[in-house]
Write a structure and sequence with these properties.
Distance between the termini: 38 Å
CATH superfamily of the largest domain: P-loop containing nucleotide triphosphate hydrolases
Order of helices and strands: HHEHEHEHEHEHHEHEHHH
Helix content: 40-55%
Number of helices: 12
Number of domains: 2
Bound molecules: guanosine-5'-triphosphate, magnesium ion
Radius of gyration: 21 Å
Shape: globular
CATH topology of the largest domain: Rossmann fold
CATH class of the largest domain: Alpha Beta
Strand order of the largest sheet: 3-2-4-1-5-6-7
Amino acid sequence: MSGVAPPLDRRALGLALTRIANIRSADALAAAGDPPATQARRIGLTGAPGAGKSTLAGRLALSRLDRGRLGVLAIDPTSPKTGGAILGDRIRMDDLAGSENLFIRSFGSRSAADGLTDNLHELLETMDRFGFDEVIVETVGVGQAEVAARTQVDTLILVIPPDAGDVVQAMKAGIMEVADIFAINKADMPSAAKMAIEVKRIIALTHRGHDGNDGDGGGGWVPPVVLTSQADPDSIVQLSAQVDRHAEWLRASGEQAARALARRRYWLRRWLERNAQQIIDREPAAFFEMPRAQQMTTLLEQLGRLPGGGVV
Ligand SMILES: Nc1nc2c(ncn2[C@@H]2O[C@H](COP(=O)(O)OP(=O)(O)OP(=O)(O)O)[C@@H](O)[C@H]2O)c(=O)[nH]1
Ligand SMILES: [Mg+2]
């Protein structure tokens, strides 16, 4: 792919990403055409604030530059507490810049009208259109952002700092079950080894019986646990190797196709929900006094009048 793509127009890409980051989700959906013919490999990095995601994303990107054109998108949380994080990310990540094949962009979710993660799909499709071979996406692993990130990436890495004791407890039920790879980060800290053991124990519990073709849909992939540290290049190589191993598994198991299909379902569902929401929000109080059946018929009629891809 990288051999065929025209030179990267950084300015045009930057403008396109800014535009999508700043429009309402309904408008982003309306502007979307058909999915690009080729798609970048998408690697997600998620985890609690301060887990070391940006640092790790940068190291991973550097170690994978030989794969072709590589992008890093960092989506920052809206929380005013982390107000400095956007600039922080940029400084740390820009240390790596200078490579022709590398494009790094950090976003503040604050700037979007209804949550930047809502437009993640369109941001990633833009990267596809600009001929990227791989894109690393950083999101903070909480709530809705997580759901969006999970659907959008091929391989999801959960970044866990060594001192995240309670976090692991809290995440047991949700995110831990959807992560493909666990990175116990800041492995230079003494508590990392203990955290790795704890995480492996949880994986053993949640993935019991997943080590064969048990037909459970996740069949055969037991998430590996990798100890990573900014100061240890070998640990980044190991993480990168697990990403490749997961890619191979996705292909061989048919899960790749299943995820691509899930992504398309998700897009269409979002399109429908957003349009329905806009129509419903516009209705006056009197509308809701009508019999329910009539409300539904009216709503469906209005949806039916939408041009393909359009928004009322
Ligand atoms: N000891 C140690 N500290 C690290 C390592 N990697 C990152 N840090 C530090 O951890 C802090 C947070 O790093 P970031 O990479 O900004 O973490 P993040 O998860 O992207 O943070 P947010 O985007 O704000 O959620 C910084 O002070 C880093 O210097 C590591 O391998 N070891
Ligand atoms: Mg960050």
